[in-house]
Write a structure and sequence with these properties.
- The chain is of the alpha+beta class.
- Helix content is 43%, strand content 23%.
- It has helices at 9-40, 50-53, 60-78, 82-91, 93-100, 151-154, 167-184, and strands spanning 80-81, 102-104, 107-122, 125-129, 138-142, 198-206, 212-222.
- The chain has a five-stranded mixed beta barrel with strand order 3-4-5-7-6.
- Helix 3 (60-78) packs across helix 7 and helix 4 crosses helix 5 (93-100).
- It is globular, with a radius of gyration of 34 Å.
- This is Lipoprotein.
- Keywords: Lipoprotein, Membrane, Transmembrane, Transmembrane helix.
- The chain crosses the membrane at residues 25-45.
- InterPro entries: TM0957-like_sf, UCP033535_lipo.
Amino acid sequence: MSASTTVSPPVRKAQRSLSRNAKRGIWIGVIVVVILGLVLGTRVVPADDPLAQGTEKFDPATYGAENFPTVQSAIVESAVDADVLAADIATDPAAAAEEYAVQSSGGPVYTTTFTGVVGEGQSGIYDVAVEGLPEGLLIRVQTGPAINGTELRDATGEIEFGQFINQIDFQNAAAALNEELKTQVLADVDTAALTGKTIEVTGAFTLINPSSWLVTPVELSVQ
């Protein structure tokens, strides 16, 4: 026969008290660890720190002034002679896009350079007669006062949507580069008196119509 062990009421009370104290100690330990984690993971940010000010608002004027020279240099460096580019596009558009273009939401963006005689213009957009082009190809250059399109933003492939907070800022980046073009390139050109003049142009265009290029210049000089 086995004898049963009888625990007296005072002993049971002491055991319950120890159990409650042990649980309380565990919870206190957990709370201490959590508080230490919060304290160690908290960074004190000075009032003038950008993080304390929230996300910095996009400034188109600053963006254009800072980034246009880089975009300009990249377009000049990658520009292909218009006659060579036109021939390659006419021969094999897909291969030409693969070799020369940067893809954008509006289509392939090309960079090109040419010299030609300016024809008639309307709203600052001039036809330019360039020798050596396939028959039927029209080249036009936009000189303002309104510069439209996203070619300057898209031509290098280095400016992407993910660099901006939203679509509005992404669009404003394109407009800012266009505005800076007017300041740094076109301000010294009499764009109202180009007809009949010979000009040298380097710029970018989106190939929407294979028989018509609308070029946004990053360099334009009157010879």
